[in-house]
Amino acid sequence: MSGKYQQAGFHLIRHDRLWQEEVHDSYKAKGKLVEPSVCPQCGAVFHKGRWQWITAPEGAHSSICPACHRIHDHFPAGFLTLKGHFVHDHRDEVINLVHNEEKRERTEHPLKRIMAVEEKGDELLVTTTDIHLARSIGDALHHAYQGDLEYHYNPEQNLLRVEWIH
Ligand SMILES: [Zn+2]
Description:
Blueprint: E1 11-13, H1 18-21, E2 37-38, E3 45-47, E4 50-52, E5 61-62, H2 66-73, E6 78-83, H3 85-89, H4 91-108, E7 114-120, E8 123-128, H5 131-145, E9 148-154, E10 159-165
Parallel strand pairs: 2-5, 6-10
Antiparallel strand pairs: 1-9, 2-3, 3-4, 6-8, 7-8, 9-10
Helix pairs in contact: 4-5
The structure holds zinc ion.
Zinc ion binds next to α2.
């Protein structure tokens, strides 16, 4: 049912395994970050080891955050494909839920953002800056409407493909 996701490097996983499988993400390398740093694109501040929505302290360094970096590179970490009769018939409702889930997550976590919502024929393709946002959008859709949900993870590149068919 998901043959086209059998791509090199991706394998099907149980979504609760994702936390254990996560490996190094080069976009989140913190080694060279000086605290505090402020992202000149979005204003997020790197403080106490994580990016936060706080006011930049006086004299903060300037450093682009991993989410803006991915957006600049057009290099998503999460890909959701949404398709099926339900998606077709409830398109706006589904897109609203996707955006609401992003808003909820992004409020706490500046690095969790949607990059794009695209229509490809009858499918919706949602790309995200963070694999865990893709996962939680998939969970939210499944929780709200059921349907079939699959996660395909690529540990080498830390990419997640989510397929929801309903
Ligand atoms: Zn940023």
